[in-house]
Amino acid sequence: MPAFFNRRNNAMNRLILILAGLTAAVNAAAVELPAKQVLTLEAAKQVAAAAAGEAQRRHARVVIAVVDDGGYPVYLERGNGAQVASSQVAIDKARTSAIYRRPSKVFEDQVSKGRASALALSGAAPLQGGLPLTAGDDVVGAIGVSGETPQEDEDIARAGAQVLAAGADASPVTYIDHAAVAAAFTRGAPLLETPEYKVHASRRTEPGLIEVHDYETDVVYVLEGVATFVTGGRLLDGKVTAPGEIRGTRLEGGHVQHLEPGDVVVVPRGTPHWFREIGTAPFLYFVVKPIAGPGGAS
Asked: Looking at the structure, do residues 243 and 145 belong to the same domain, yes or no?
């Protein structure tokens, strides 16, 4: 009998241990962790495309780096003519912004004001041009731009960062107040740029180059001034100035049109167009650019 009871007690002990283990496993499985938003390759490409669009508008030669929230590269784009060294610098700026959750300019300002200890911060590059990428309240990564002046680098990076911030907003509507619009027209500047479309507040005081856009259709609405506009024909000396963008100075043929306030012109992608003369300056006009092809809707 004692042996029987010993075997029975041993079996009960093993059962108790098994049940205790199962209970611990269930309790461990029940622990809830907060959901985390992750920067996808697709989102990184959209951010880079918006920044590249701003760089193209400025004729800037830059490298654009997009990293995740740990500072590791997700996407890198080196524009035509950008210096090779800018590739690593752009990554360094982006990594700084991602892991410290703030613009990289913060550290440049600290160094310039005499805080030499900022140079010793692990993984920090005290160079302007890196900005965090946010989705709601979360920092999901960062963008870094290098190749032009520090302020230009940051402005180009901001064009990319704004795309992700706008996409994270529950509202798809963009509101730009009259003061911001008026300020944009004083210098001619984009009001909004996304991978699907762009809206520019454009200003001209003199003729421009002949242009051909492979991916963008231009919808022009004239606000102020008069101009002579030429569309169609054949561009004779076109040179690629950016992906999908061709410029030149010689046009064969084409249709000549006088533009004045209230006129609307739609220039399909692939069509040469040229502001040949500006009759009354400044010539102000809105341009809406739906995008088809790389980086835009098909």
From this structure: no
